[in-house]
Amino acid sequence: MTGSMQMSTVREEKGGVKSSKRRPTSPRQVEGRRNVLIHRIENDVHAASIAYALEQRGNRVFQWHTGRYPEDAAVSIAYEGGSYIATFRNRELKFSPSDIDVVWFRRRQLPVAPQTIDARDRAFVTNELRVATQAHNAFFNHAFWINRFETADFCDLKPRQFLLAQERGLSIPITLISNDPDDIKEFLGRTRKCIYKPLIGHVWNEAGRLRKTYTSFISHKQLPADDLLRAAPGIFQKFVDKAYEARVQFFGNFYAGVRIDSSKLEEGHLDWRIGQSAIGACKPVTLPPDVYTKCRQLMNDLGIVSGGFDFIINKKDEWIFLEVNEAGQFFFVEGWCQELPVVDAFCQFIESKDENFVYRPPRRRLTLKEAYLAAKKAGIVP
User: Fold this and answer.
1) pTM exceeding the 0.90 threshold for the entire prediction
2) I need a surface site. Which of 102, 104, 142, 313 has the fewest CB within 10 A?
């Protein structure tokens, strides 16, 4: 279930991206290959690199930049005579839903009204754009999605994840999700160490300085006033004394996992995302067979075909489920471990259109570094 990979210095968020000006061939020209629609945002180096790699493998790729709608993108849907014609256009391409075999929902970005719109009308225009965007996705129901848009929001609901994970037999930390001050104080009173995390991450922009939510210790003394506790529910969990953590990325039946020794990080011992810039290399991990089976069952319950699982492994070698992330941020796994074929497996996964995908190692696999350097040589990424 794991393979080998090559170290890469490429990171998920760095750099800008140039759009390819090449005109791909006919969407039905290459038998057995795919026509792939990628929902992405600007300056996504990895998405651009993988798009170019897929093209070099004989696939046709359509990149839909969600942040360009509506300024540089347009959609028309015409109904007449009992049928319809849907056309999607942006500055590089034009396509119809029937052209698409696979949709990679890499990044979601809700559209907003252009600045040229009168301030009094922006709320109306924004709502219209967002309703239209949601409706557009329904025209691609015939395609293989990674992951389906209608399951993404539900998958991100942590209380639902905990419920389904427990039903499948995965261990989770002792947890309270509440906005009741009395229940929160009682929970903190009976746990020696407790951590807090939000139901969903958030970023504040304070005078140009970004502040993000991370997992942190919480105590009685740190609790705000009761009215503030009632204002926003949160996740409170008993602290788990860990040996290490693991991030395990699934594509169908395939997975690639890394061991994260977060306790050795100067920053990030409680939340490795804080100190991830200091993570140079990780060892691969192998899931216990029963945990693997439960992960696949949970994916089916959540309606996802790809997901990144976060685990804590305690001093008793027990695997404790924290969450599963359905989003497309997973290439860093290959950047941290030279043995895992994340990029090569993902390209095969797209081409397979199979929710029960099994990776078949080629004689020479594609690495993240090679994909990036090829796109750079073609002038697509900096």
Assistant:
1) no
2) 142
